[in-house]
Specification:
The protein has 4 helices and 4 strands. It is an alpha+beta fold. It has a single domain, classed as Alpha-Beta Plaits. Belongs to the YciI family.
Length: 90
Amino acid sequence: MKAVVFYESADDVAAKAPEHFAAHVAAYQPYVERGELLMIGTFADPQEDGSMAVFTTREAAEAFVARDPFVLHGVVRSYRILDWREALAG
């Protein structure tokens, strides 16, 4: 079971994100190094569609969003974490 974090962007995310981007990367890098964060990024239109991250556990996802500068400084309006049952095609 994986955990997917969906972020809803705050108004004018393109203007707000750069100020906190380095801190955001610094916050997620330890999760990458421990193998707990598998993917993170924006959708094609971050303002309209937001972004997402895939974690190996819900606990890791919850721990990350609790200290993510994008959450703490209002770069994202809201987030939700969903448990995800990964299925491979083929």
